[in-house]
Amino acid sequence: MTIEHVLAVVPVADFDAAHAWYERLFGRPADNLPMEGRLVEWRMTETAWVQITFDPDRAGSALLNFAVDDLDHQVADISRRGLALGTIETVNKGVRLSAIRDPDGNTITFIGNFRIDY
Fold first, then answer.
1. What is the value of pTM for the model shown?
2. What domains are there in the chain, each with its CATH number?
């Protein structure tokens, strides 16, 4: 088996509000709108996507993690777009975390100094 793409799915109750909020979070419009009013996608890397989908029963249950090259810059950039991430915490072996919740309560965590090996 060869996996070619990974798609992280974030369920939301208010699709239009979530769509606008994630555009602010990512700082750009969505890359694909495959299902009008139900599904929108952002390509994050060559083979990784984030999908926002209308699913009120599951809304607020997602945990989405992004390993970034410069956490301080990422937090400042998102703050300039009017969204406030939580305090940056240093955890195990110098890894740093800062999280934010979307309007439905889904948690998005940005990770600095991410390690593949511990």
1. 0.93
2. 6-112 (3.10.180.10)
